[in-house]
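pinging the channel bc i need a second pair of eyes. not urgent but kinda urgent?? the chain im working w is below, pasted from the shared doc
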Amino acid sequence: MELDYDILNGTDEFPYPNSIIGTDFKNFSSDFNEIDEFLYINHRFNSLDSLIKDLNHLSTSLNETLLNLVNDEYNDFINLGKSINSGNELIELLLQDLQNFKFDLIEYYKKFEKIDQELEVVLKNRQVLMNLKTVSKLNLIIHDQMMEFDNLINELSGVDIKSFKKLTSLYISMNNIVKFLTNFTKDQEEIGDCLFHENYITNKIGSIRLEFKSYLDQLIKKELSKKDKTDRDSNLMLELLKVYELIGKQEDVLGILRK
């Protein structure tokens, strides 16, 4: 590059010396010719001692700036390390709290598991009590029906369709209750044996079945014994046939009719 070595560089201004500052070098590349051009254009009127002094001052300033930068960064690094250490301590505290919380959860789980087992036992016992209550109520009901059945069948002197239907209803109800109790208690080992049911109800219902069957046979034989069919009570005969079918004794009716 050709340089213009005119002292005033085409101006009438007096060339005052300029000090070298750090910003003068920010656009330099690795080309040494640029340094020569820079010194000539900007500092050709400076003495060599002045340039050396400026450069020494600039070097000292840059070293101080670099040292301050290193110190600041080092302090930041130290502070960062302290922050990390504080963070580690906080993490350790959190881990300890979480560990304690885990132990608490395990203890609560054990307590809830124990409560759950106790509740299961309570509910099971409650169900047993309800089953016992059901069995007791049904035994009392069937006992009352048996007493009513005995009173009614002993009071029947003649043929009364209304009383006969009531007697039949009691008989069917008692048999259904006995059947239900038999099936209900069969798989309920925790209920145990009911002595009242085993010693009284079972024997009594067997006696009532025989008594009711005998009563039906007497009624139908009495009607069939009437020679004149017009004297027979057709409504009663129809009810008797329905009852025989209802209690599953149709074959007995056929046997009576054949005689």
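so Residues 127-258 form one domain. and The CA atoms of residues 36 and 116 lie 94 Å apart. — does that match what u expected or am i reading it wrong
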